[in-house]
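Could someone model copper (II) ion with this protein?
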Amino acid sequence: MTRSGAGFSRRAFLRAGAALGAMAAIAPSRTGRAHTPEPFVPTRTLTLTSGETELHLLGPDKPATRVYAYDGQPLRLLRMPRGTRLEATYVNGLDEGSSLHFHGIRMPNEYDGVPPLTQPLVGPGERFVHRLPLDDPGTYFFHPHCDETGQSGRGLVGTLIVEDERDPPFDLDEVLCLKDWRLDDDGSFLELTEPSGASKAGTFGQTRRVNGVPQLELTAPAGGDVRLRILNVDASRVMGIGVEGAKAWLIAVDGHALDPILLDDLPDGIWRMGPAQRIDVHLRMPTDGAPVRVGDYAAADIYYFASLAASGPAKAHPGQGPLALPRAELPFPDLDSAEFHSFTLQQATDQAVKQLGLPPDDPLSKALVASFCVGATTYWSIGQVSWATGNRLGLPPPLAVMNEGRSYRIQIKNETRFSHPMHLHGHAFAVLSSSKGRLPQHFADTVLVQPNEAVEIGFVAAQGDWVFHCHILEHMETGMMGWFRVI
Ligand code: C2O
Ligand code: CU
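Reply:
Sure, complex below.
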């Protein structure tokens, strides 16, 4: 950890700070809105405080892990009705900078929780008030938007269910939050990022868990209708979700209803789901008592994370069809008039990247990166542009400047050897096509783009500065993030 010859000085630190100051100055004016929004009258007020707590991830008799959680509740679960006006105050109880982002919620840009683009970093002990209209029912989640690899990697993530009183009646409605943990035998965390992972498929956890336990054992009426809300909140892993022993339909993606699709009709009978993606599955319990299993079939060893046992007298099903959710009420882009953009996901090739001249594990270097809410190194790019990292501090120009209310078609081409779950803030987009023909049309906020695949999405642009990034957390923090300015 020698600093001699590194050429780093207090002055360089200040210079870098000035560069990031420019980052904040580029934030949009909040006054130039095209129309007056309706006044926000909260119907639900809550506080979410991040902090540390203990969780027995390795098993009841093994050492506990000091995890991060909201309000001391690991994988905190919130349920509230559609139409809620949520005023959520984030209190940062960590001893590092952070923020709170409600993933997939369409909201005014200023509450999006993305430092330094939409707000300053929330320092230790500080707070930030979010005002969110929860008009789109479905399965969502929330997490910090700064050092996600470290903070979400230690468990700082929660589920938000926006309930819809118009939903068909299910006999059971379960949240299954999937996350792998990178643990040592003594329960402590291993390094959550390593260059070999960040520059490739990600740094994986080996302790596979659902809601913090190895497997859920559920009971439902024989012939009953079960709704499973399955969230991939892992940092790196792409899963392939499937069901054995029962008829099951995909009824929503990223919270948004779609025409039910029998899982068996999908390629390989599974739904591929990268970090941040969610699905709702309707599963009809068998009447003969046969075992039902739900698993990740994309893993080398299939990971069965839930089993369901049928109980009681069999429910009769005159129709036999799936229980469809109410149709999603979302703006669909006008494809004839839509403006077209294409972006390619690549390994970063920018040779001009300037090193700050400090090894990444140097405390000063770490402090810089933390105070700017960026990663240490650049490995990735979108359209040959990389997000700021410790290699090069300063906000990149927007990938595109768009007009509010106008329709856009975005082609995402993956020229890397790895899959990337690409997420756009502030919108629910329509997934229009995959060059591999593997995706049904559906609404989503995150879409998996496989190697050598081109996926096209479309949306009606909403006002604000919205980041567009890979949700493999290390990819996002090492360059694979850009932003759209919508004016
Ligand atoms: Cu889960 Cu930038 O978000
Ligand atoms: Cu990625």
